From TrEMBL:
Residues 284-430 form the Oxidoreductase molybdopterin-binding domain. It comes from the Bacteria. This is Molybdopterin-dependent oxidoreductase. Keywords: Membrane, Transmembrane, Transmembrane helix. The chain crosses the membrane at residues 21-42, 54-73, 93-110, 122-140, 212-234. Coiled coil: none annotated. Residues 159-206 are annotated as: Disordered. Signal peptide: none annotated. InterPro entries: Di-haem_cyt_TM, OxRdtase_Mopterin-bd_dom, OxRdtase_Mopterin-bd_sf. Residues 172-200 have a biased composition (Polar residues).
Amino acid sequence: MEQWLKKLRKGYGKKLVSLHFWNAWIVVILAVTGLMLVGGFWREILGIGRVWLKWLHIIVGLAMLAPVVYYLILASKHWKQLRNKPWQKVNTIIVLVLLVGWLISGLVLWQFKLVGPKWSNAALLTHDLLTWLGLPYIIYHSITRTKWLKDSTRRTVSATTPTKDIHGTADSLDTSGENTAAAISTPSSNRTTATKSPDQPQKPEPVYTRRAFIRSAVGVGLAVTLGPTFVSWVGRNLSIDNSIDSMLENDPNRMSPLPQPAAASSPPIGGGAEGHFRVYTVTPIPSFSNENWSFRIDGLVERAQVWNWEQFVKLARTVQVSDFHCVTGWSVYKNTWEGIPLKHLLTQAGVKPGAHSVKFYSGDGVYTDAITMDQAQMDDIMVAVMHDGKPIPADLGGPVRLVIPQMYAYKSVKWLNRIELIASEHIGYWEERGYDKDAWLTGAAQLLPNISS
Ligand SMILES: Nc1nc2c(c(=O)[nH]1)N[C@H]1C(S)=C(S)[C@@H](COP(=O)(O)O)O[C@H]1N2
Ligand SMILES: [Mo]
């Protein structure tokens, strides 16, 4: 063990340089893939690519453990070199906190089923926060370093392995680029040339690889990912209030009459939803009016039916309070949904014996999902028309969306406009792209919570 550690730590200056290099690449890949995963923009474009991207992000994220552990092995020696460089110490600590924080919260997000929504929520918040604080910091760090690196005489570390490390300075790694006083006192160019054989180039080679790396990686990374994500993020934040109220104000749907809330909906018996919906869609957001909207139930039913909006808003509705959980870690708690229980629609239509699954279609023409006939017996599955006493805005799937509280929200089809009973199973949009067919929430009772009318 001792021997092994000694061996690992040998020539540690060179090792730290390559460690820094590899770690930088890992962070760039994670930033690019992570920003693409979080951006609603890319949801529309990537399709199945999103699932591969997610795996790439997870695998590279796990791989980050290697440089972190490796650094910790070298840390004691590095720390001594940073004696008089408080800013580099601070920088090192910041970067370590970021990496370890991302790693742990990432692990929790990856294992969302194991840990359940509460932990996923906390992990997502941590992951996002570290990203929005850490990424600009790291970009800044890279850019200031690039400038500093242009002057090779100010480098404090050379990638060449010194023959003998007497002063303990040849191996020191300046990781901040801000504290250069110590570096200048022992010009590294002298040291570098001194330890190199005469036929080798004069300038230390890593300056070029690092510069080229940082330029291209940061440039491409920022343009490709931060670009669209940042633009849409700014866009969202400029419309200051992105609450449901403002979605409703700008609602492109033109349904009339508007549904009138039941007593239990207004004020909402749940007391009002807690949390924010992230607007997810794999298509442009569709909009509807009485002219182009209808709702049908067909397939293996005794009485297939089509409603127009005027007829549909007259159907008897019930009210329920339920939580809403996305597999990506966010939740919205205590939603007061008002709508028609799926069970009522099925009873009314009359299920034929051969029916195996209930297939749900979105008015976006692309998104579908399904549950089995058995699952469809749950009392709390709702064809929702109102949320917290107000119509559901187009952004959140209005005028009518499905709500299956005990399953992850990818089952809750937005812009629902058709229910078909089919003889076989159906693989939904995200299931076809790698999501689990089993969308049960951890600990789902798989039966009936509070329903009132
Ligand atoms: N038509 C349609 N329905 C959909 C989706 C979608 O992309 N299109 N995304 C699903 C996913 S993964 C989630 S988490 C929720 C998000 O609902 P929200 O956009 O109202 O927050 O809708 C689900 N239903
Ligand atoms: Mo989701």
